[in-house]
Write a structure and sequence with these properties.
It is a single chain. About 85% of the residues lie in helices and about 0% in strands. Helix 2 packs across helix 8. It is mainly alpha-helical.
């Protein structure tokens, strides 16, 4: 519960700070860009709700099975979050063009915030691991540290740089939280060999990005065809790389 409160605070903190230091227009641009980022976070949270009981069973039966399950969960989250980050960064302008009311200044913020998808997704693997080994309080302290990082960076960067700085601060905070979760999980559960599990999905996402990048200037509903092409390329790359 404490962790949930702390993470919610850092998710919402940037908007009142923007309102304090910058114009209402920037608050609107940032809030609009933040909505797609925030909305898709239900995916990893739902997956965590499904996987958590399995991790709890493994924690009682075999720590080796628990470590293996956490690694697989991390990989699954990475395989979903990474292509979302790549695709949203590359296709932000045509995707935003599907909605006539999407503010053009919001698009750079959307691109920056999209970089955080992959970190927000994989972080749920560490939340699950630390929860089932009764290290919830440890993770809550990490969330508190991330909140402090977010607050300090926003106070320093929002006055001169506005909503773009708030976007980058969100990404940096997610990276800090993932780094803390990775370190704490390795400390209390053991080494998970996540780098070995990650390079194939990361390469597959890079291949997808390279294929769709030349098509990032399409207009209208044609972007949906590019999205379908990106999905097909990504799945094919996952299979060929045996990810």
């Amino acid at each position: 519960a404490v962790t949930f409160v702390l993470t919610t605070l850092y998710w919402k903190l940037d908007v009142p700070l923007l309102k304090l230091f910058r114009s209402s227009a920037e608050v609107g641009w940032y809030s609009l860009a933040y909505k797609p980022f925030e909305a898709l976070l239900f995916v990893p949270i739902t997956m965590l709700g499904v996987v958590l009981p399995v991790l709890a069973v493994y924690q009682r039966n075999s720590m080796d099975r628990l470590r293996a399950a956490v690694s697989i969960f991390f990989k699954a989250l990475l395989m979903l979050g990474w292509p979302l980050s790549v695709g949203a960064v590359v296709l932000a302008y045509p995707l935003a063009g599907l909605w006539a009311g999407f503010y053009k200044p919001s698009i750079p913020a959307l691109q920056i915030l999209s970089l955080a998808y992959v970190f927000a997704f994989v972080n749920n693997a560490f939340i699950g691991a630390l929860t089932v080994i009764d290290r919830q309080a440890t993770y809550a302290r990490a969330a508190g540290a991330s909140l402090i990082v977010n607050l300090v960076l926003n106070l320093i960067l929002i006055p001169p740089f506005g909503y773009i700085a708030a976007s980058w601060t969100t990404v940096v905070t997610e990276i800090v939280l993932v780094a803390a979760g990775w370190w704490l999980t390795a400390r209390h559960l053991g080494k998970l060999h996540l780098a070995a599990a990650s390079w194939r999905p990361i390469l597959a996402g890079a291949v997808m990005g390279a294929v769709i990048y030349p098509l990032n200037n399409v207009h209208g509903e044609a972007v949906l065809l590019v999205v379908l092409l990106g999905i097909a390329v990504y799945v094919a790359a996952l299979v060929l790389l045996r990810a």
